[in-house]
Each structure stands twice: as C-alpha cells, then as structure tokens.
Write a structure and sequence with these properties.
Helix content: 40-55%
Subcellular location: Membrane
Main location: membrane
Number of helices: 16
Organism: Streptomyces graminofaciens
Distance between the termini: 42 Å
Keywords: 2Fe-2S, FAD, Flavoprotein, Iron, Iron-sulfur, Membrane, Metal-binding, Oxidoreductase, Transmembrane, Transmembrane helix
Cofactor: FAD
Strand content: 5-15%
Strand order of the largest sheet: 9-8-7-10-11
C-alpha cells in the first residue's frame, strides 16, 4: 500500500445537480404528452364496445411510448451529459418492454372487441381486419418485429448474442416504427377526429425521428469530419494493456470531459466495421486524446497492432461520469483494475482534495500507477494502492472508513469490474453515503 499526501487544495464550488433537472424534464415531457393524448382520445368519442375503447387507448399510449423510446436512443449530448448513457439505456430497455405489452394488449382488446360485435371468432376476426381495414396488416408485421426484438433483448438471449448480431436485429425497430406509424395514420381514430390531433401526432413522430437522425448520424459525421482523428502513438502499458494516442484538428473545440468515453472505430481493413467503448485515460487538453485498454476480446486485443497514422472514427463523447455532477468540494476516487482509466482522467481535472483508492490483485496489475502517483503528489491528494485477493473484501465498510474517515462528506466516483462495483456500492450504502454523492457508470449504449 502506497500513500502520498500533501495539504489539501482549496475546495471547489459544489456543483448543481443537472441530472435531476434533465430527469425531471423528461418525466414532465412524457406526462404532458400522456395528458394531451388522453384529451384527444376523449374528444374523438368512445365506441360502444368497452374492449375496443381500451384497445384504442392502449394503442395510443403504446405509440407515444414508442416515440419516447426513440428520444432515449437518440444519444443527444444534452441528455447524455446529464443522465448518462447507461441510465438512458436502462430506461430504453424498460420502455421497450412497456411498448411491447401495451401493443400486445392493444391487439388483443381490438380483436376480441370486434369479435364480440360480430359473429366471428378471434382468429377469423383478425384475418378479416387484416383484409378489410387499411394499415392493420402493417400493424401485425410491426408487432411481430417488436416481439422478436423484445425476445432477443431479454437478458438470457442477450448474453448469447454477439453485440453486432443483437444490434443488427435491433435496427428492425425502425422498420416497426414506420409500419406502426402508417397504421396509426390509416386506422387511428385521433387522426380522423381533428386537425389538431393529426398535427400533434405528426409533430411527435417528426421530432422523435429528427432527434435520432441528428444524434445518431449527423452529429457523429460532422464531428469526425471536423476533427479528423489519427493515431500518433501506440504505447504498451503492461503485457495485455495498451495506450493509444490520437490527434486531430480543432480538438480544443471537442466537447469532451475527463471521465467520458467514445465508441472507437479504427479504420483498418479488418476492424473498420467494429466499434468498441473505451474511456479517455487522460483529461482532454485540446491537443490530443488518449485511451488505455485491456485485451478482453478480439477488438481490444487487436489495438496493439494499430499502426501510427490510422484514421479513427469516434462516436461521442458519451457519459455523465464527470466532475459536472459533483455535490461536494472533496472527493473519493475508487478504481478497480483497468477501470482506473476514467479515474486517472478525473484526477487530472478535478479540483479540491481527493483520496484515490486503487484496487488490484497485485502490484503488477496497477496500470498507470506511476501517473496516478505523480498527479496525486502534484495536486496534494492521497493515493492508496490496495492489493490482495478478492476475499476478504479490502474495500469493506470498515476499510473504507479507515482509509477515508470523512467518506460521508465527499463525492465518490467509482469505476471497475461489475462485481467489484456492486460490492463497493453495497458497502457505500451500508455506510449511509448519500445516493446523490455516489457517481458511477457502466458501458451501455441505448439502441
């Protein structure tokens, strides 16, 4: 265990809570649109059959949530910097399952409602609707696609699929969206009820699709055209860890912060099609960017063979794991293994006194340790290298209090392997560290 300590630096101004503002804004937008949809539904009048009434209402709510889901996957920088891609991905996932159940309920209620008013059984009623009502067949295809996407998005199935396979299947969501919207235009009662309702729905879908087009296509293409990133150096840090340095044009205008990550795509003949998420391992300085990665798969293992001069297509920056979310003037930075990369970048940017806890199995696993030690010394911070096997827990509540007696009064930034992060989060809860002072992020990308 190594400790470096100097008198603490002057505390920085505690930050506001932009995450609460952004989250409350999204909830308010959704609630307002639910109210508008309900009003238009009531104005359109009710069918005599209760099942048909409920079917139409669940269909409208399902359409609204589908548009809201597009907003969650749009990767708009304002929301991403405040909420974080991992939280947006989690919301996207649960919104997706809500859409699936609402649309299934819509289909069942509509079919059984019309069957109750006719002499047909539900199966023949569905066939009759598909043959006689414009847009119903498209709706059936859309629902089938959404069911398939929902099945492959379940955790058990997701673990068995390569990311590229899952992502390719997931792209059919956009086909389902288009088919569902055309069904709504052709058969939706709110479209026929009034011009304001029609204008509203065109506006909702237009805004959602425009957000996806801007965040997923226009912004990445524009940023890469502007910055023209190229590899300038490939530096081994350990047996299976490598740092890649990049430079480009106008990097001082790139809105990246310490703690964020990019989806990196190295434009080589064998890897141009594959993107991998890696955090910045140094705070952006306007001149160069650096990532540091451990060989954990084919994509990351191939990084040590990247040649100087290789063009890089970077999507991002993404993530809310930044000093923007600080609530206290002093901090604790907890890193596990290669999770030290965003922690090292944060230490470079962060103001105020910080305590760094670096958890590794052995001293040899302490990647970037020399840099951490130099930074800690220069900034007057404490650095603890915590080594040893997983059990007993070297970051148990009693150990955390021993290393950082005032941990409840500090912001805690945490990054490392999922089991380690889960254990530390549990220990912080046991110590009653306020939730708003705990900052962590997992590599997740919505859609």
């Amino acid at each position: 265990m190594t400790t470096v300590q100097q008198p603490p630096a002057a505390p920085s101004r505690p930050g506001v809570r932009p995450k609460v503002v952004a989250r409350s804004g999204l909830y308010a937008v959704l609630a307002a649109n639910v109210a508008v949809v309900t009003v238009f539904f009531v104005q359109a009048g009710f069918a005599s059959n209760t099942l048909i009434v409920l079917g139409r209402l669940t269909g409208l709510y399902g359409a609204l949530l589908m548009a809201f889901q597009l907003l969650l996957v749009a990767r708009l920088p304002w929301f991403d910097r405040r909420i974080g891609m991992d939280r947006l991905t989690s919301w996207h996932r649960w919104t997706g399952f809500s859409v699936l159940w609402l649309l299934l309920t819509h289909a069942v209620f509509i079919v059984f409602g019309y069957a109750d008013s006719s002499s047909l059984d539900p199966v023949n009623q569905l066939v009759d609707l598909a043959e006689t009502v414009e847009g119903v067949l498209r709706a059936i295809v859309a629902l089938a696609l959404i069911i398939v996407i929902g099945v492959v998005s379940a955790r058990a199935a997701r673990r068995r699929l390569a990311y590229e396979t899952w992502h390719f299947i997931h792209l059919y969501t956009y086909v389902a969206v288009v088919l569902a919207f055309t069904h709504q235009v052709a058969a939706g009662t709110t479209f026929a009820s009034s011009e304001p309702a029609k204008t509203y729905w065109y506006g909702v879908w237009g805004f959602a699709l425009a957000a996806v087009f801007l965040g997923r296509l226009v912004l990445p293409l524009w940023r890469n055209w502007r910055h023209q990133l190229r590899v300038t150096a490939v530096v081994p840090e350990a047996d299976n860890v490598v740092s890649i340095y990049m430079t480009g044009r106008d990097l001082d205008k790139m809105p990246a912060r310490a703690g964020q990550f990019f989806m990196w795509r190295f434009l080589t003949p064998d890897r141009w099609w594959q993107a991998n998420p890696f955090s910045l391992s140094a705070a952006p300085d306007g001149r160069q960017l650096r990532l540091t990665a451990k060989a954990a798969g084919d994509g990351s293992a191939a990084l040590k063979h990247v040649k100087v001069g290789t063009r890089v297509f970077a999507e991002g920056p993404y993530g809310a794991f930044t000093a923007m979310h600080r609530t206290r003037p002093e901090s604790v930075l907890i890193a596990g293994g290669v999770g030290v990369t965003p922690i090292r970048a944060l230490l470079e940017e962060i103001d105020g006194h910080a305590v760094i806890l670096y958890r590794v199995a052995t001293d040899r696993d302490a990647v970037l340790y020399d840099e951490l030690r130099e930074l800690a010394h220069a900034k007057g911070c404490e650095l603890h290298l915590v080594t040893g096997p997983v059990s007993p827990d070297k970051l148990a509540p009693s150990e955390l209090v021993r290393l950082v007696p005032d941990i409840r009064e500090r912001d805690v930034f945490l990054c490392g392997p999922p089991p380690m992060m889960n254990a530390v989060l549990g220990n912080l809860r046991e110590l009653d560290v306020p939730k708003q002072q705990i900052h962590f992020e997992r590599f997740s990308l919505a859609g």
